[in-house]
Design brief:
By secondary structure, the chain is mainly alpha-helical. Helix content is about 50%, strand content about 5%. The chain contains 28 helices and 10 strands. The strands form 4 sheets. Strands 1-3-2 form a 3-stranded mixed sheet. A 3-stranded antiparallel sheet has the order 9-4-10. A two-stranded antiparallel ribbon has the order 5-6.
Length: about 675
């Protein structure tokens, strides 16, 4: 078994918390640089690591008794290169590698590259090393020179080690976290041969579902070197589905869910019950039957079914920071994928179920949800805002679910194009419709300039310090007390500078200097400012609509925008909303897009039953998208004109006691 020597120098980089941990060892070795003889490959690697440290973090060595550190480091490195050359003349590369200590697995190859040692290795020896140690492939393929020197040997090693090869190729080319690391595959390794590697991997018992999932959702438009064949994609999908079924068949995992009930016995508009991690939302059948006029139906979608939240933002989309920090790092995330968080799955699933339940409720009582939406475009926009040209013709009640799915996609596009024309020209001219294209929902502009405040270039730096559960300011080491964030620590505890160690003081200084935290003179207590509150809203909701803000709040936003902590967005949809709509509707923006429009426009599968449950579910997903788009367009027309909105309220109980009971259960109400 190889040795591990924790005392040896490793260069971690200047931004690593361990950046200076080996300074004293560096000084000790540098002191004898001119007289010492390097006798082992590990000493040679250490010499290179010392050189990197001296060059990368020169301030570590300021004011030390030993001078001329760069020259001494260069002398050491020259000796290291001579030792490498001597070792490779007398031994195979495999024999040299077998002497390397455990802490230097990566650093060994860094030294080979720095010394230009590739040409001193024999091809047969190099191939044997890769066959015996396929874990070296990842490091070797970061460098171009060995791939040029040993293309055939590396190709054979990749083909003969499909487990290492497949995970390496998928991880480097498709995964978000590691895609910045270079992967220089041999030019003689063709796409079909990589397909063979992937098929061998998929069919093996050791295939990791995370890597298999990446193959089924491969980011084709973002990866030029490899494009999985249809066979690889289909088999990857089947294997992933099978592995998930096997994994959860015996109850392994955490079960969560959401349900919808329209209860004719419930009087209050909204209720909720919890069982474990599942929530069932109940809605008053009495209210929904009593008021079925189109205007109330549309208002119900806002105020009863919560298609938009209290900020006027769509509820269903994923939010960037809604996952706890540790959860966000688990698993593999494919480059360009839409992050399907647990919160997103529950909220979006809720909107589909609400749409289906409300549509069924209306049809049972002689109405139609589609008729209310048609009324908005065909009558309300003209009467309320004096805008002609909006129109909509949704599928009939008697059409099959397949025909409904085929018909609703173009109608969604018609509504969006009409709005786009109005935003550009102030009128909706039929002659322009054929020339209007809609590639992304992010292209739709707001009618009146700035609409949202969103994250700016320095948002993440301050936001992470204030709101991340991974920030060290959220933990008091002496008292062993933790909160979900530093913001919550300040709100819930009496904390001062003295509660934090010296190495965290620069973080506190930065927050105080930039007016996100105030330090009270009388007792030293740290508290968040209004600037921090503004950032918190954007951290949690991904956007802050401006037209709902007062003068003081707008001044805060403008101040933060002038510092580039936040920025302005002049689009109809906030960026996270347009991402969601693109993910659901199209298939060009995200590697794992649902692509519902294209699914039914391009005959993506055979149809055994046009009334199948999965097609029915897709229709209500598309209908829920149309509802959200309609509410956002209506809100924008109201914002621009000052017209529209509720005229009066009906005296009817809004929340059932079950809502307050659950709030007390979660500590959200007294």
């Amino acid at each position: 078994m190889r040795d591990f020597d924790e005392k040896r120098v490793v260069y971690y980089g200047r931004n690593d918390y361990a950046a200076g941990v080996h300074r004293d060892r560096c000084l000790s070795v540098l002191a004898s640089a001119e007289i010492v003889d390097l006798t082992s490959i590990n000493e040679a690697i250490e010499a290179h690591q010392i050189k990197l440290t001296v060059e990368g973090i020169p301030e570590l060595f300021l004011g030390q008794s030993i001078e001329d550190h760069p020259r001494r480091a260069t002398i050491l490195f020259s000796k290291a290169c001579r030792l490498v050359s001597s070792e490779l003349e007398n031994k195979s590369i495999g024999e040299v590698y077998d002497q390397v200590e455990l802490q230097y697995g990566k650093e060994f190859w860094e030294l080979m590259e720095a010394c230009g040692a590739w040409q001193k290795m024999k091809s047969s020896d190099f191939e044997k090393l890769l066959m015996d140690h396929p874990e070296c492939l990842g490091m070797v393929l970061q460098y171009k020179k060995p791939v040029e020197c040993f293309a055939g040997e590396i190709r054979r090693a990749l083909i003969n080690n499909p487990r290492y090869s497949a995970e390496l190729i998928v991880g480097r080319l498709a995964a978000e976290e590691t895609s910045e690391k270079a992967l220089n595959l041999p030019q003689n390794l063709g796409n079909s041969e990589i397909d063979g590697i992937m098929l061998s991997y998929i069919n093996s018992e050791t295939a990791n579902p995370n890597y298999v999932s990446a193959l089924r959702n491969w980011p084709s438009g973002k990866v030029a070197r490899y494009n999985p064949s249809p066979e690889v994609r289909v088999k990857a999908k089947r294997q992933y589905d099978k592995s998930m079924d096997d994994l959860f068949r015996n109850g392994i995992g955490l079960r969560y869910g959401t349900g919808v009930v329209i209860d004719l016995r419930q009087n209050a508009c909204k209720g909720v019950t919890r069982e474990g991690f599942s929530l069932t939302h109940s809605f008053s059948g009495r209210w929904l039957k009593e008021y079925m006029d189109p205007a109330t139906v549309m208002n119900n979608l806002i105020y009863v079914f919560d298609f938009v939240d209290s900020h006027g933002l769509m509820q269903a989309p994923a939010r960037k920071h809604e996952e706890h920090g540790i959860m966000a790092t688990l698993g593999m995330h494919v480059k360009g994928e839409y992050r399907e968080t647990t919160g997103f799955q529950m909220r979006s699933g809720l909107t589909y179920l609400e749409t289906m339940a409300y549509a069924n409720c209306l049809e049972t009582n002689g109405g139609r949800l589609e008729s209310a939406i048609e009324w908005v475009y065909n009558q309300y926009f003209a009467e309320e805002f004096d805008i002609t040209g909006f129109s909509l013709a949704l599928p009939s009640e008697k059409a099959t679910w397949l025909d409904k799915c085929k018909a609703i996609g173009p109608e969604i596009e018609r509504a969006v194009k009409a709005y786009s024309l109005y935003s550009k020209y102030g009128v909706i001219d039929d002659e322009y419709f054929p020339h209007e294209s809609m590639r992304s929902f992010s292209s739709l502009t707001a009618l009146d300039g700035k609409k949202y405040a969103i994250a700016g270039s320095s948002f993440e730096r301050f936001g992470s310090l204030l709101f991340s559960d991974q920030c060290m300011l959220s933990y008091l080491h002496a008292e062993k007390i933790s909160e979900s964030s530093f913001y919550e620590m300040m709100v819930n505890r009496h904390v001062t500078r003295g509660d934090y160690p010296e190495y965290l003081q620069p973080n506190l200084n930065e927050l105080i200097k930039n007016e996100f935290v105030i330090e009270h003179d009388e007792n030293g207590r740290l508290e968040p400012t209004d600037y921090a509150v503004c950032l918190k809203i954007i951290w949690e909701h991904d956007a802050l609509p401006l037209f709902r803000l007062g003068k003081r709040d707008l001044e805060i936003v403008e101040s933060l925008a002038s510092r580039h902590t936040i920025s302005y967005c002049d689009k109809l949809f906030a960026p996270f909303e347009s991402d969601y709509l693109d993910y659901m509707f199209n298939d060009a923006s995200f590697s794992n897009s649902a692509g519902l429009r294209n699914r039914y426009d391009h005959a993506n599968s055979s149809i055994d039953d046009p009334q199948a449950d999965d097609i029915r579910a897709d229709y209500f997903k598309l209908l829920s998208l149309l509802i959200a788009i309609t509410l956002k367009i209506n809100e924008e027309l109201m914002r621009k004109s000052g017209l529209g909105g509720l005229d009066s309220f009906v005296d009817w109980p809004y929340y059932d006691e079950s809502v307050f009971r659950l709030a007390r259960e979660f500590g959200l109400a007294k």
